[in-house]
Amino acid sequence: MRDELMSGLGEECGVFGAFDFDGEDVSSYIYYGLFALQHRGQESCGISVTRTFEKGKNVQFHKDLGLVNEVFDKKTLNSLEGNLGVGHVRYSTAGGWGRENSQPFVIHYIKGILSMAHNGNLTNASVLKEELATTGAIFQTNTDSEVIAYLIARERLHTLSIEDAVRSASEKLEGAFSLVVSSPSKLIGARDPFGFRPLCIGRKDNIFFLSSESAAFDTIGAEFIRDVEPGEIVTIMNGEIISNKMRTTKKQASCIFEYIYFARTDSFIDGHSVYKSRITAGGILAKKYPVEADLVVGVPESGLAAAVGYSQESGIPYGMAFYKNSYVGRTFIKPKQNERTSGVQVKLNVIRDVVKGKRIVMVDDSIVRGTTIRNIVKMLKEAGALEVHVRVSSPPFKFPCYYGTDVPSKENLVAVNNTLEEIRESIDAESLGYLEIDDLKDLCPGLSYCDACFSGNYKGGEPIKEEDIGCC
Amino acid sequence: MRDELMSGLGEECGVFGAFDFDGEDVSSYIYYGLFALQHRGQESCGISVTRTFEKGKNVQFHKDLGLVNEVFDKKTLNSLEGNLGVGHVRYSTAGGWGRENSQPFVIHYIKGILSMAHNGNLTNASVLKEELATTGAIFQTNTDSEVIAYLIARERLHTLSIEDAVRSASEKLEGAFSLVVSSPSKLIGARDPFGFRPLCIGRKDNIFFLSSESAAFDTIGAEFIRDVEPGEIVTIMNGEIISNKMRTTKKQASCIFEYIYFARTDSFIDGHSVYKSRITAGGILAKKYPVEADLVVGVPESGLAAAVGYSQESGIPYGMAFYKNSYVGRTFIKPKQNERTSGVQVKLNVIRDVVKGKRIVMVDDSIVRGTTIRNIVKMLKEAGALEVHVRVSSPPFKFPCYYGTDVPSKENLVAVNNTLEEIRESIDAESLGYLEIDDLKDLCPGLSYCDACFSGNYKGGEPIKEEDIGCC
Amino acid sequence: MRDELMSGLGEECGVFGAFDFDGEDVSSYIYYGLFALQHRGQESCGISVTRTFEKGKNVQFHKDLGLVNEVFDKKTLNSLEGNLGVGHVRYSTAGGWGRENSQPFVIHYIKGILSMAHNGNLTNASVLKEELATTGAIFQTNTDSEVIAYLIARERLHTLSIEDAVRSASEKLEGAFSLVVSSPSKLIGARDPFGFRPLCIGRKDNIFFLSSESAAFDTIGAEFIRDVEPGEIVTIMNGEIISNKMRTTKKQASCIFEYIYFARTDSFIDGHSVYKSRITAGGILAKKYPVEADLVVGVPESGLAAAVGYSQESGIPYGMAFYKNSYVGRTFIKPKQNERTSGVQVKLNVIRDVVKGKRIVMVDDSIVRGTTIRNIVKMLKEAGALEVHVRVSSPPFKFPCYYGTDVPSKENLVAVNNTLEEIRESIDAESLGYLEIDDLKDLCPGLSYCDACFSGNYKGGEPIKEEDIGCC
Amino acid sequence: MRDELMSGLGEECGVFGAFDFDGEDVSSYIYYGLFALQHRGQESCGISVTRTFEKGKNVQFHKDLGLVNEVFDKKTLNSLEGNLGVGHVRYSTAGGWGRENSQPFVIHYIKGILSMAHNGNLTNASVLKEELATTGAIFQTNTDSEVIAYLIARERLHTLSIEDAVRSASEKLEGAFSLVVSSPSKLIGARDPFGFRPLCIGRKDNIFFLSSESAAFDTIGAEFIRDVEPGEIVTIMNGEIISNKMRTTKKQASCIFEYIYFARTDSFIDGHSVYKSRITAGGILAKKYPVEADLVVGVPESGLAAAVGYSQESGIPYGMAFYKNSYVGRTFIKPKQNERTSGVQVKLNVIRDVVKGKRIVMVDDSIVRGTTIRNIVKMLKEAGALEVHVRVSSPPFKFPCYYGTDVPSKENLVAVNNTLEEIRESIDAESLGYLEIDDLKDLCPGLSYCDACFSGNYKGGEPIKEEDIGCC
Question: Which residues form a coiled coil (chains A, B, C, D) (predicted)?
Fold first, then answer.
């Protein structure tokens, strides 16, 4: 269940880029594009634009803490004039550096100005930072992105083009990164050799786009062209897409949790439909953990598709058990621990008539701490459900993610120190079934993916220092 | 489809009241209660509280334009100290009187201070206002509520109690009203003799509640006691609920559109489950307008339950065709007419894999102007749907509502000047089926209801002057 | 010393009106007019405008807590379209009714809409309120102004014109009131029979103005025409000023403290220059309390002119002893009691070179609690002043004002319970001289004035109930 | 005349530092310190603090656009916990980089974190920036300060201490700089070898301070210790002040315009009283340009002291001719060109009784474009002044300042292309007298100063590139 009110998974970041070769302003495209990616980050956002072909024209940008619809008003958006630009939404971070860490990152360097937006997490940022610091570098943020910008600026000193500099810099990075960079006349996208985080290309007439997810293209009426490949650098200039490859090649390792939870149901990543993968997950759960029941329900929003899959496979009717209140905003006053109502109750309510006297199969995408699901099972039973059989469309969460997901530390992961039976008991479910690690391969047939948070198999390596654990 | 971004139905208002006989503060209950009623009004909101048993202690209140989570922060909420209070959420109104019109209405009168929140629309407000003006009354808002407050104050001059004054005043009102009033030591609820708008009573330990909808009780962990009856005045004092009846009795006429669209799926109104009535509506549509199809989908949120009903009756599988972006806030920049993206696209996206190559039955709650549904059908077809059969879980909208719903004027209602076939063609659907007026009686078996917006049968009379058309 | 940071005198309110007979918008005139009157009230402000000759056009208004430059931005100001309007600045009030109490007061009544701004304090408001309440009136604010509006509305029922209604209503009021009222086609000014609070008429081409102080006319380039006379009602319509008189006539009693402290130095009230009256006060002090000294200094801003007067009379050179920091705004964090710096120090600093080794005569307008002046004397001495001789350009403050000034209660007035010598000692001055009550007659020769706060001689009567003590 | 509403001189920046060796929080000292320096910069401000002796404790900072009392509320100020910190107020800058350019500058570098605040303008920033860029540096602001931070970080690689790094870096800088730097355990102040911009040391018990002006010490009750000398680096650590000198020594060149206009009247800079220098300037004017007149008046605030000096020397009485409205805030709506009122009128009004029928000597600190003074002369004459003799307490402004003052470009300086007589005529004064360049030496006897803006004698060299012209 995706929910800022409850203990859960931190989401990541989203990046977006646009280049109109007819010279029209793109800020409004970026606004709606970021809005479509808002689920990937709610702490801060920003847009940076430039007018190509007008030498000396400065980059314009605006970024701040808040949701896309809070940070930008009409006046601000209209003041961002330029036909080339990048945008970013950022997941919540701790500490007072919030505003400083917001992106896009806009820098002056040897060749002028560039803007950059980054999604992912480097595992060697601290080492790179130290190397840079020993040559006198100064850092004004807490982000990996600043390290990347530095490397690009340094590489640009002895490369022929900005795309070459992005490539050379990329070859020094370890971990996860999907980058969108705008120079005075180019829009560049880059994806790490594993392709942990998604990045794709879209187009509408003479306007080219880069986006974390394809769903953003639908929102603005653009066409999906293709994914940026792992280890690829795409340079959009003169109305063309030019492709380059990093020398560091790796076996692709798309984040499987994008399919299970992060991405929008209506996105396609690396050739696979997010929706289909969730339907499949539900189907597998139905086959592995059949149960006699009257109704299959999903926990909104991320559990709904898997519930449909379970229903289709099992033949047990699908139902809507919950009303979800979507008016919760950033300034919502969360109920205190000992208060009369819990965060779950405020946001979700059981539709009594749906569940009363019924044996329920309830599908959710994952269990992190276990608190939320315990509350939901309780609500179902108080509303009259006779039995609640919990099915989870991912394997048990046991390991931290080093590639851009903010997972709580091990001691907070219920699956680390508890057996399946202990978890079942603690959430008061009649039965409990998780997907198994081996099942993941069927979600996106043929996809080469990363499942480190379930398996501990870190294909991209582990972080060099503790400071390298983070995201975006 | 409930949507502030698109042309559609204006929603109404929501009222809430709380009285803790143990003397604890109730502002936080009212906050979460209003939050649960937020779908009934997004323009403004307010809370007023008083401390009973402390003579001379002033009423504290706060109200402003904005959503519940915008208007109240922790500091403001904590400053509202009192064990008796009322709250209000208000639907958007035109003109510069926005802030003045926000409620609760707090007045000093002959007997001290009272606070009042009102949902509904009077049909004789202009006449009452004129009568009051001819005796020198002044009005500081544009609301019917101010008229009601005046009448209560005047009646109080020659009645023995505040509840008697509320009763006498109520007997002079025509049209729709559900009132929640707090005097220094009583919480009073009143509902017009037709019972157009809902109002119900809840309880948790020694705390009593009044609410527009029962779902608010779930949110705060309270128990639903019963509905306030049409023409009833309930006085909550000394830990008891005292019932009085207005002398004007009428045949009950609960608003049927509350069941179809307004109310939360998880609410119960006048003994009927909103959810069940929607399932039933879907079932009737399936029987009346069967079609060979591959999938039944609902337009979120209000069309989903009826879609489940259609699916259950027809045996055609239910599917989730849409991703809904819920980050749209009050300050969202709406796409311009000629812009690259429509309001519908920004908020809803089709999940391509669900609909591609499929024959779709699409269920929505109502068609107002026809613009929104045309856009959605278009999106489905662009995503590859072979056929789209539209089913509407209400009869065609042909008449304005005078009892608290903000329906566009007749010339904007597509069903007024177009035949069914013309509507079908204009929205490019393969087939189109509406519920018939006569079907409404099956939604809530035994309920005596108002269907004036479909039938033109105004049980509560028509407004005396044009100014009397409005709401809340 | 005028200072929000320190214990002192509450200021009052300011009113302004404008009517352009050429039909141009007046909101910008009212904005600059209110800005010029900002010293009269800093809590809230508002502007209400109407377009004459356009029947049915609604009144537009905007009011809120804050300074003129905070409450109005360009967009809001431009949205206030109309060639007739009134404005108000309001002094700080206690309690949560702040925003409700802000003015202008805009009401619908039997004859349409009228807007009203009021400066003063009624002494019979509670009685009038009770009378109104016993006929069913409701009150939505804590202000006297609402009572006045009610009376006007009631009188309008049996008078031929709005100006007649204002006159009849005025004849029922006791205490202080300067009113500015706009009806759909008239701008009306009224001043109580004593003329406690100022009100004057200005003109610029075809635009007529009403203002609390003449200085506002200078700001907008208008010409001062004349004062509204005590007990006069002026009606500005059809390009003319029509004068009417209330039947209740009284001996004029202009507030002498306007000259001493409240009004701007550059204003003229009832034919007398505020500046000159302060110069005169300083001169009297010099004659009555001569002292051998090196320098005369004034406490900014209100003590400066009297210091110049003292210097001119005594021949002792005038000097600037203080630097005043004028960046203190509403949100300034005041130093805590036990903190390292006092409110006075933050706002005022002594220019050491001016006072070091000097015997100083320091002139201030009044002493209320005595705390501020004690701090200032201390600062002077720490900066090296050898002697500090305090001269006060008003008599000792001993009585509350019932006519629109917010004076602390008696127990907080240092002059009530202390002898002159005790006060001198407590503020550590070498000598102390106040103006005597009898001297006041020389400040504005020939003026008939009220000096109740010094003499206790309440020409306008005392308030009937305790609730009648207040202002605006 | 100091005025944001009118064409005039840009002010500069202000810096402040505090170190409490008893370990108490210093943020509130810095708040009041910056408030006392607010006249030096109104665009943005910031505070950065650290807790010494607590290893690993992060720096806390907050900075934003706005005045000190707008940017900081109680909650934010209290959240800045630390006993060592620096603060900055910044003068308005063009472009969208406003917020990015706000200070203190907080950087992570090889040795941890340091915070820095800077007042001044480098003349070789572009060259240094280019040098840094060619080794891969990236810049995130438009400020010289970022260049200085880079240099310090680089020097720190091969110096033994942070103060050594500051010294080495300082030796590479050309132009004007007064720096306040905090490392994890030291507070460092540095002033360029010319000492263009002021910087001084204060103390209160065990708390040490650095400040642009001594007046800030009075505000917080601290004692002035001494000025930081030109070319000196002071390191405050372990309760001591350690002094080091840069190897680059120059002849001192204190900015003379600080005395004439920038600094507060109550400050002492480099051993000279600002007040006294202004009195002297007024005296010189009286001797050089005597005139038969009735009254000497000063233009508030910066012209007042010189007017007192003129009065004392000439024997012509001093008077207060103007009422100044100090409620003008950042959001004040400035009158449009063609509007009914000018910016000057809104802010200043002539006190008619003071000037009517009088021959006036009016003293102001400087004439930039001539527009403001023309308006003021006009206002005096409209108020009845018979003659207006303008005396300017500085020589004619003819050259840009490269050391931290924002002077308009040459074509906007009225003295560049007009003779004295032409200026006199254009401002409609009966006579006009400027201080002569040679007179400046008498303002602060013995002081070695810079008068480049009057003489064109750039002791610190001219900027290498156009980009080097700027401030702070």
Answer: none
Residue-wise pLDDT for A232-280, tens only, equals 999 999 999 999 999 999 999 999 999 999 999 999 999 999 999 999 9
B220 shares contact with chain A (CB less than 8 Å)? yes
A138 and chain B in contact, CB less than 8 A = no
Is A453 annotated to bind a ligand? Reply is yes
Q: How far apart are CA B410 and CA B160, in angstroms?
A: 46
CA atoms within 13 A on the CB side of D353: 19
CA distance B22 to B51: 11
Domains of chain B listed by start with CATH number: 14-252 (3.60.20.10), 276-446 (3.40.50.2020)
Q: Is D453 annotated as a binding residue?
A: yes
Q: How far is CA A51 from CA A56, A113, A147, A179, D349, in A?
A: 10, 12, 26, 20, 47
HEC readout, chain B? CCCCCCCCCECCCEEEEEEECCCCCCHHHHHHHHHHCHHHCCCEEEEEEECCCCCCCCCEEEEEECCHHHHCCHHHHHHCCCCEEEEEEECCCCCCCHHHHCCCEEEEECCEEEEEEEECCECCHHHHHHHHHCCCCCECCCCHHHHHHHHHHHHHCCCCCHHHHHHHHHHHCCECCEEEEECCCCEEEEECCCCCCCCEEEEECCEEEEECCCHHHHHCCCEEEEECCCCEEEEEECCEEEEEECCCCCCCCEEHHHHHHHCCCCCEECCEEHHHHHHHHHHHHHHHCCCCCCEEEECCCCCHHHHHHHHHHHCCCECCCEEECCCCCCCCCCCCCCCCCCHHHHHEEECHHHHCCCEEEEEECCCCCCHHHHHHHHHHHHCCCCEEEEEECCCCCCCCCCCCCECCCHHHCHHHHCCHHHHHHHHCCCEEEECCHHHHHHCCCCCCEECHHHHCCCCCCCCCCHHHCCCC
Is A471 marked within a binding site? no
Q: Is residue D148 exposed (0-12), middle (13-18) or buried (19+ Cβ within 10 Å)?
A: buried
Query: Please, which residues have CB within 8 angstroms of residue B1's CB and are 6 or more apart in sequence?
Result: B8, B299, B300, B301, B302, B303, B348, B364, B365, B372, B373, B376
Say how far apart CA B273 and CA B443 lie, in whole Å: 10
State which amino acid sits at residue D133.
A
If DSSP states are collapsed to H, E and C, what string results for A221-235?
CCEEEEECCCCEEEE
Q: Is B4 on the interface with A (CB under 8 A)?
A: no
Of A58, A139, A157, Cβ closest to residue D136: A157
Chain C contacts in chain D segment 281-310 (CB below 8 A): 304-305, 308
Please identify every stretch of chain D with a pLDDT value under 70, giving residue numbers as ranges. Answer: 1-11, 55-57, 92-97, 330, 337-341, 469-472
CB A318 within 8 A of CB A296: yes
> How much is the pTM?
0.92
Do the Cβ atoms of D29 and C333 come within 8 Å? no
Which residues on chain A are in Cβ contact (under 8 Å) with B335? 32
**pLDDT tens per residue across span A23-80:** 999 999 999 999 999 999 988 999 999 999 776 567 999 999 889 999 999 999 999 9
The SS3 assignment for D126 reads helix
Please tell me which of the candidates C276, C327, C349 has its beta carbon nearest to residue D218: C349
B13 included as an active-site residue: yes
Structure ipTM = 0.90
Q: Which amino acid is at C54?
A: E
Angle at which helices B371-382 and B420-427 cross, to 10°: 50
Q: How far apart are CA A66 and CA D384, in angstroms?
A: 56
Task: Please check whether residue A460 is in contact with residue A176, taking contact to mean a CB–CB distance below 8 angstroms.
Answer: yes
